[in-house]
Each structure stands twice: as structure tokens, then as C-alpha cells.
Amino acid sequence: MQWIAMLTMLIDHVGLVFFPDQELWRIVGRIAFPIYAYALVQGHRYTSSRPRYMLRLAVIAALSQIPYQLALDTRGLNVVVTLFVGALVLYLLERSKSWILSSMLIVAACTLLNDLPFDYGAYGLMLILIFRYAKPSWLAPLHMLLNLLFLFVNNWELQMWSVIPTVLIAYGPQIWRKLEAVRVSRWVWRSFYPLHLVLIAVIRVFM
């Protein structure tokens, strides 16, 4: 998953900078952020030291800021800053004893992320919260609802594609087990390679 996140982010940024008129690059790039958000939640959950984990995020964010602005020609804050805020909110939520204070924290953080030029803004934090607190069976539906909300509010059409990795995260193991349960007869499995080549060759002859 980490390789997929890095590769799709690279594709997204290459498309944004060098091929801005070709939408396919950006569609592929929508895969990256949900994986990073999911990885953040897993890192927050299993790290041996959450303060050190957040410090590492802060260092990466600081080191990335100037290259981010130069490469993408923007004055905004890079996505690792958004992830850092997400990790900080998770840290504070776990220490909150009141759902009222927790709700106020989330609203304040979402407002801050939207008012300042954070990459992904409040959307990023809300997706992180979905990955942290939603049951696995609800991950994809809630992510789709979030996408629909921001489609309506910000006209983020491309972001609709970002639900794909969430579907795989939520249902991938179940889907794979079901696919594994479907058995192909031995003669079909063994004969497929030569037979499909014969079929292609026959079609080529008649064409």
C-alpha cells in the first residue's frame, strides 16, 4: 500500500505540473490521499510514542513546504501539514472526557483547515476521523458521503474516484476470500493459455 500511495502521488503531481490538461493523471492521483490518511491512523494507533510520531510528521511537513510551493507553484500548506493536524486532533480527542469538547475541537479544526490554505482542508481531517472511528463495513459508505458533500460544496468531481482505495481497504480481504472460493475446473485452467492463443490466431487469419 505504501508503494501504491507514493506512486499514485507521483503520478498526480507529474500530471498537475506537466500535463494539466490530461485528467487521467489526476484521477489516478486520487488514490494516494486515502491511503496516506489510513496509514496515519494505523501509525497513530500502533506507534510506541505518539508525541515522537507527531514530531516526525512535523519535521517532514517543514522539510516539504518550500519544495511543495516551488514544485506546484502554490502558496498553500502541503498535505503532511494536514496529516499532522489530523494526528494532533486524534491525540487530543483521546484525552477528551467530554463529547461536547470533542465536538468543539473537531469543528474548530475543520474551520482552521478550511480558512487557511491546507491541502485537502477539512475534507482531509474528516476522512482521517472516518478511518479512525468508523466500523470497517461503514468506511466506504461514509467516504462516499463525504465525497458527495464536497462535490456539492466545492465541486470536487475528481475526488469521487478516491473511494476506490477505501473500498479495497474495507472489503479487500472479504472479496479476495470469495474470489479464492470460486474454483476453475482443471481442464479449463490448464488449457486456457494455448486455447486463447489459438482463438486469437484464428481471428487474425480471418481478419
UniProtKB/TrEMBL annotation:
It comes from the Bacteria. InterPro entries: TraX (IPR008875). The chain crosses the membrane at residues 53-70, 76-93, 105-131, 137-153, 188-206. Keywords: Membrane, Transmembrane, Transmembrane helix. This is Conjugal transfer protein TraX.
